[in-house]
């Protein structure tokens, strides 16, 4: 699997699809926020098309504190709100598509 | 993949596969957690567990809206089926 980080050109807009982004952040330290506002920080081991996520050396954050640590942890995709890269000062965040968030507001999610 | 341990992990579900037969800790919707031995799972994250202990984390509220300290209600179930849509997180039990 290619784990090279995306190298944005100085003034060029970021290209590539959301799934390209997700492929490129495998192996990096990420923050996964789930709907209830709890965050999971950890090294992204892998993810799949449902946005199920496997994290290594994961920390569970709630109310600004670490509430638990897990060596490995699986997060079911439907609970995810966004995945955010913490490494290397990258300030990229990938939100689940607006339609998913809208559908949650409508009570479908 | 830079780590050997990760080479068996092609997809997140493999992490659950590795936990088969082991004691796992599960977070569910509705402030519930379960620990138990994982016997089976599927793509929906439906789970079959044995020797399961469910903990329900409850915050009671008084009549005037004051939250009381959280309390935990526990129950043990010999064999448990968990419907996948309630699953938030699965980790090997510490």
TrEMBL record, chain A:
CDD domains: LSm6 (cd01726). InterPro entries: Lsm6/sSmF (IPR016487), LSM_dom_sf (IPR010920), Sm (IPR047575), Sm_dom_euk/arc (IPR001163). GO terms for cellular component: nucleolus; P-body; sno(s)RNA-containing ribonucleoprotein complex; spliceosomal complex; U4/U6 x U5 tri-snRNP complex; U6 snRNP. Keywords: Cytoplasm, mRNA processing, mRNA splicing, Nucleus, Ribonucleoprotein, RNA-binding, rRNA processing, Spliceosome, tRNA processing. Residues 17-89 form the Sm domain. Its main location: cytoplasm. GO terms for biological process: maturation of SSU-rRNA; mRNA splicing, via spliceosome; tRNA processing. It is found in: Cytoplasm; Nucleus. SUPFAM superfamilies: Sm-like ribonucleoproteins. It holds the Pfam family LSM. GO terms for molecular function: RNA binding. The keyword Iron-sulfur does not apply. Component of LSm protein complexes, which are involved in RNA processing and may function in a chaperone-like manner, facilitating the efficient association of RNA processing factors with their substrates. Component of the cytoplasmic LSM1-LSM7 complex, which is thought to be involved in mRNA degradation by activating the decapping step in the 5'-to-3' mRNA decay pathway. Component of the nuclear LSM2-LSM8 complex, which is involved in splicing of nuclear mRNAs. Belongs to the snRNP Sm proteins family. SmF/LSm6 subfamily. Component of the heptameric LSM1-LSM7 complex, which consists of LSM1, LSM2, LSM3, LSM4, LSM5, LSM6 and LSM7. Component of the heptameric LSM2-LSM8 complex, which consists of LSM2, LSM3, LSM4, LSM5, LSM6, LSM7 and LSM8. The LSm subunits form a seven-membered ring structure with a doughnut shape. This is U6 snRNA-associated Sm-like protein LSm6. It comes from Dioszegia hungarica. The lineage of its organism: Eukaryota, Fungi, Dikarya, Basidiomycota, Agaricomycotina.
UniProtKB/TrEMBL annotation, chain B:
Coiled coil: none annotated. GO terms for biological process: mRNA splicing, via spliceosome. The keyword Nucleus applies. Binds specifically to the 3'-terminal U-tract of U6 snRNA. Pfam families: LSM. GO terms for cellular component: spliceosomal complex; U4/U6 x U5 tri-snRNP complex; U6 snRNP. This is LSM complex subunit LSM3. The keyword Nucleus applies. LSm subunits form a heteromer with a doughnut shape. Residues 11-94 form the Sm domain. It comes from Dioszegia hungarica. PANTHER family: U6 SNRNA-ASSOCIATED SM-LIKE PROTEIN LSM3.
């Amino acid at each position: 699997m290619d784990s090279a980080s995306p190298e944005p050109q100085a003034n060029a807009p970021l290209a590539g699809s959301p799934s390209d982004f997700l492929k490129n952040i495998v192996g990096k330290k990420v923050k996964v926020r789930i709907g209830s506002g709890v965050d999971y920080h950890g090294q992204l081991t892998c993810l799949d098309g449902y946005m199920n996520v496997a994290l290594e050396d994961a920390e569970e954050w709630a109310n600004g504190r670490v509430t638990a640590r897990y060596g490995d942890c699986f997060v079911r995709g439907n609970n995810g709100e966004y995945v955010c890269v913490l490494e290397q000062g990258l300030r990229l965040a990938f939100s689940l598509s607006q339609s998913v968030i809208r559908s949650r507001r409508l009570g479908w999610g | 993949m830079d780590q050997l341990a990760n080479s068996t992990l092609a997809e997140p579900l493999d992490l659950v596969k590795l936990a088969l037969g082991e004691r796992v800790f599960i977070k569910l919707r509705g402030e519930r957690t379960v620990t138990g031995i994982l016997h089976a799972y599927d793509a929906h994250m439906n789970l079959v567990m044995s020797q399961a202990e469910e903990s329900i984390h409850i915050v009671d509220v008084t009549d005037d809206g004051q939250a009381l300290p959280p309390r935990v209600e526990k129950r043990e179930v010999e064999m448990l089926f968990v419907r996948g849509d309630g699953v938030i997180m699965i980790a090997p039990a510490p």
